[in-house]
Amino acid sequence: MDQILKKIQYLSTQEKKTLEQMVLKLSEEVGETSQAMLSYMNANGSEYKQLNISDVREECADVILVALSLFYKLSSDEEELQQFLSKKVDKWESVMT
Q: What is the per-residue DSSP string for 26-52?
């Protein structure tokens, strides 16, 4: 996983999109995840796409990739990313228990 994160971090430095464009791209990917889920659940009007759970998972990976790339455009500090993630996971855990 560390190797993939380093590659994402490197590719993020090569990304030509502006921060604003990347946020819009993130929104687009979230929308595609929603569309995949609607199709997978056979929601009215979405059945024709015939997407499955694998498609939903793939779209989730796209969301993660764009979100990480956006973070890395703002900061290359791995420790900061880990601190943010740890803080958010702890917060999430506190509402789950």
A: HHHHHHHHHHHHHHHTT-TTTGGG---
Look at residues 66, 60, 72, 63 and name the one whose alpha carbon lies nearest to residue 10: 72
pLDDT of residue 97: 79
User: 39-62: per-residue pLDDT in tens?
Assistant: 999 999 887 889 999 999 999 999
- Give me the amino acid identity at 9: Q
Total Cβ atoms within 10 A of residue 11: 13
Its pTM stands at 0.89
Q: Where are the alpha helices (DSSP H) in the chain?
A: 2-14, 19-40, 53-74, 78-96
**Which CA distances in Å does 48 have to 36, 41, 45, 53, 54?**
11, 12, 7, 15, 16
Euclidean distance between CA atoms 74 and 30, whole angstroms: 20
Q: How many CB atoms lie within 10 A of CB 47?
A: 12
Are 66 and 30 in contact, with CB atoms under 8 Å apart? no
